Amino acid sequence: MKLSRLFLSLFVTTLLLCVPLVIEQALELYESNKLHTNKSVLLELENLANAGDNSAAFLLATAYKNGKLGEKDLQKASHWYEKSANNGDKDAMLMLGWLFYKGSDTTVIDITKAKYWFTKASNEGVEEAIEMLELLD
């Protein structure tokens, strides 16, 4: 029994150590404009994001927003920012506020949604969101 607990503990520890390595590797690829070329890292990043990892979701969102995965895709960026924001990521909340405030070719300006996300971010203490709410009122 103790041996199986030990193996389980080692397995979980290994998993926890691997997550930051994938994020670190993805960040290096992002910064060198090569994230789109490494499908295995992208797949791992998406799996982490779908499993609730805010860093992975935020990185994917930012990559789509900035065209690091091909053409800029603000709908996909919005999807990943929302996934991260719904898990409590205040930076993702702020980014969603900006996406809805500015709009784009694929995202309609929606001040109500912008205020919603700026409010959520301001409730988390994000100064920029507080300033945007003051501007919008």
UniProtKB/TrEMBL annotation:
Q: Which UniProt keywords apply?
A: Antibiotic resistance, Disulfide bond
Q: Enumerate the GO terms in the molecular function aspect.
A: beta-lactamase activity
* Pfam families on file: Sel1
In the record, biological process GO terms are:
response to antibiotic
Note the InterPro entries from the entry: Mitotic_Regulator (IPR052945), Sel1-like (IPR006597), TPR-like_helical_dom_sf (IPR011990)
Name the chemical reaction catalysed here. a beta-lactam + H2O = a substituted beta-amino acid
Q: Where are the transmembrane segments?
A: none
Indicate yes or no for the key word GTP-binding. Answer: no
Does Disulfide bond count among this protein's keywords?
A: yes
Q: Which domain of life is it from?
A: Bacteria
What EC number(s) does its UniProt record assign? Answer: 3.5.2.6
User: Which PANTHER family does the record associate with it?
Assistant: ACTIVATOR OF C KINASE PROTEIN 1-RELATED (PTHR43628), CHITIN SYNTHASE REGULATORY FACTOR 2-RELATED (PTHR43628:SF1)
The name this protein goes by in its record: beta-lactamase
Taxonomic source organism: Sulfurimonas aquatica
Upper lineage: Bacteria, Pseudomonadati, Campylobacterota, Epsilonproteobacteria, Campylobacterales
